[in-house]
Write a structure and sequence with these properties.
The chain has about 170 residues and is of the alpha+beta class. It has a single domain, classed as Aminopeptidase (3-Layer(aba) Sandwich), CATH 3.40.630.30. About 30% of the residues lie in helices and about 30% in strands. The longest helix has 15 residues. It binds coenzyme A.
Length: about 170
């Protein structure tokens, strides 16, 4: 597996990845809201801008496609700082998703491992990961990646999240 920044050479693969999700998806975690874009070129531009020059109230974020056998199997991002009330509480540094047909094959763990290497290359050594209390897969993925449980929190709408730290 390798992580690649979104680029126009992968437009067809990005479309295939996006439409491979269920019809009623609203969000593809870690994809800079790919679900909301009909124009893939605009999504690529917005993703690159989010890394180089984010809009006000957004933090610098790097987004990657996880490529396995020339196919996109997942997407992931990391926020370079937690300087935002949501990120510092329940959003965390990292978000990711694996294509529904590619789950439980170890790709999530591989992708997270590669993403942590990217974090390190930006000098980030302490990473906050959060998982909704009910999201078993996300909790398991973080635990399998040596996430250290900090605490459970409840946010305003009553949702519960587990907070974990990974020290690189
Ligand atoms: C969370 C997610 C990325 C995991 O991806 P994955 O490729 O299936 O994960 P892996 O195959 O690498 O599994 C990693 C660990 O989690 C466990 N796991 C994964 N899915 C699981 C599930 N549904 N139930 C129980 N355990 C699960 C695996 O057994 C493995 O643990 P182990 O090493 O102790 O055996 C994937 O389920 C997903 O995209 N979910 C939707 C988006 C999301 O919730 N993202 C997280 C929030 S940002």
């Amino acid at each position: 597996m390798k992580l690649i920044k979104p680029n126009i050479n992968y437009i067809d693969e990005i479309k295939t990845f996006k439409y491979g999700f269920w019809r009623n998806w609203r969000e593809l975690h870690g994809s800079n809201q790919l679900a909301r874009y009909s124009d893939i070129r605009s999504w690529i531009e917005s993703t690159l801008l989010l890394e180089s020059n984010p809009a006000e109230n957004f933090v610098r974020t790097s987004t990657y496609m996880a490529i396995q056998n020339n196919k996109i199997v997942g997407m992931c991002d990391f926020k370079h700082s937690l300087n935002h009330p949501i990120l510092s509480l329940w959003g965390g540094n990292i978000a990711c998703c694996i294509h529904p047909k590619e789950r439980k094959k170890g790709y999530g763990a591989k992708m997270l491992n590669l993403l942590l290497c990217e974090c390190m290359s930006f000098g980030i050594r302490k990473v906050l990961l959060t998982a909704n209390f009910n999201n078993i897969a996300s909790n398991k993925l973080i635990q399998a990646s040596y996430g250290i449980f900090e605490k459970e929190i409840t946010v305003d709408d009553g949702a519960k999240y587990n907070r974990y730290w990974i020290f690189i």
